[in-house]
Amino acid sequence: MTANPADLRHLVLHFTKGSAWSNGSVPIYTKGEGCYLWDDEGRRYLDGLAGLFVVQIGHGRRDIADAMGAQASMLAYTPSWSAAHPTTIEAAKLIAGLAPGDLDSVFFVSSGSEAVESAIKFAREYHTSQGNPGRTRVISRINAYHGTTMGALSATGLEAIRAPFKPLLPGFSKVPNTLGYTNGVACAQLVEEEILRQGPEHVGLVIAEPVQNGGGAICPPDGYWLELRRICDKYDVLLLADEVINSFGRLGTWFGADYVGVVPDMISFAKGATSGYSPVGGLLIRGPLVEGLMGSEEGTFTHGATWGGHPVSMAAAIANITAMRDEKVIENCAANEKYFRQRLDDLTDAHDVLMEVRGAGYFYALTLGRSRVDCRELTNAQTKEMIGTVLPQLISDAGLLIRADDRGGPKLMLSPPLIATEAELDELVESVSVVLDGMAERLVV
Ligand code: PLP
C-alpha cells in the first residue's frame, strides 16, 4: 500500500512530511464504492472521513459520472466572466433554493479557500460600495481553519500553519472559539468586545464555522449564533458562516446555518456540494447585499476565476445535490445521528485514552489523552509519537480511513459518508475501538 518513491518524486504532496514523501509511505487508493475504498493492492478500507469531509453521497456513483460526461461532450467550458452557462445557472438556482433566508445568490469558485477569499473580498468591496471603505478588518476565531490562500490563511487561527508564511495580511484578529463555554451569549460577546477594540468603523467581517473543525468538532453553546447575528447587525459587520465542512448535510441539515438557526450574510461552501466528484467552491450571499454592490457606483464584484462555475463541475453539483435530495441522504444522517452518538459515547466508557466525544450529525472529534479517569493529557512527545506514527499505522491496520489530528489538541476525526447505515457505523465504531486499544497498549510500553 505504499507508493513507488521514484514515481512519487514528481508529485509534491499537500501537508505531507518530507520523510513520507521520500520513502513512499503514503496510501494509494484506486477504487471506491459506497462507504469503501480500495488501495492499489486490492485491500479494502472503510472511509470514515468521507475522503476529507467531502464524499457525502458515497463513492462510485455512475449517475454523477454520466452527468459530467454528458456535459463535457456537449460543452466542456465557458467562463463565468461576463457570460453564463445554463448548467451553472441551474446549479446556482438549486443551491439558492436550499439555502436559508434570503441567501439566494451564489458566486462559484473551485475550492473552500477561494470561497473564503471571495467572502473577504466581497465584504471589502460591498462596504466600499456603501461608502465605508475603512471597513477592512476581519475577526475570526482561534484554532479555526479557513484555508491556505493568503486572505483565508490570515483568517485561519492555527498557528502551526500560519507561522511559515508570516507576515500575513494586516487587519485580521482572533477571538476565542466556543470550546469550554456554556454561556453562548457571553462567548459571542467576546466578538463584540473585539469589534469595539478595533473600532466598529474599521471592521467589515466576522468569520465563524457553525461547528468548528479546527480544535475538533466544537459545537456552539445555545444562543451563541443568535448573539453573533445581533452583534453583527448592531455594528453593520457582515457575518460569514464558513461551511466548507458543515454544509450539504454533514450536521444532518442542508446547511450549518440551519443547524444553528441563524441566517448569516454569507455562507462559504465547497467539499460536499459535489461529494468530491468535481472541485466546486462557492459563496452564498444574501440577495440585498449583491443588489447593494451591483446597484452601486462600483457596479461590479471585481473578482473572478477561470474555473468558477465550470459547467462540468456544475453538472456534478446538480447530479449530487438532486440525488442527495431525492434519496433522502441527509435524512439518513439525521435519523442515525442519535445511534452514532450513543455508540461513540459507549466508546468513552470503554477506553480511558478517549477524553471526550464532540460533534453533531456525521461529524465527530474523539479527543485523546493519557487517562480520562486520572485527567492526564498526553505529553508533547507522546502526542507527536501517537499522531505522527502510531495512530496512522493502527488506523491503516484496522482497514480504516479516519484522521489523526493534533491541531488544537490530539484527536481522531470521524466524518463518514452520509449514506452510512447502522451496520457501517457499527463497523466504524468497532474499528475505532481496536485503534484505541492499540494506542493504550503503546502508551504503557
Ligand atoms: N474552510 C474550512 C472550514 C475548511 O474546513 C476548509 C478545508 O478543509 C477550507 C475552508 C479550505 O478548503 P479547501 O481545502 O477546499 O481550500
Neighbour order of strands in the largest sheet: 4-10-9-8-7-5-6
Q: How many E-type strands? A: 15
**In CATH terms, what is the architecture of the largest domain?**
3-Layer(aba) Sandwich
Structural class: alpha/beta
Radius of gyration: 22 Å
Kindly provide the name of the CATH class of the largest domain.
Alpha Beta
The distinct ligands, each listed once, are: pyridoxal-5'-phosphate
Overall structural domain count: 2
Relevant CATH superfamily of the largest domain: Type I PLP-dependent aspartate aminotransferase-like (Major domain)
- So how many helices? 16
Low-confidence stretches: none
Helix content: 40-55%
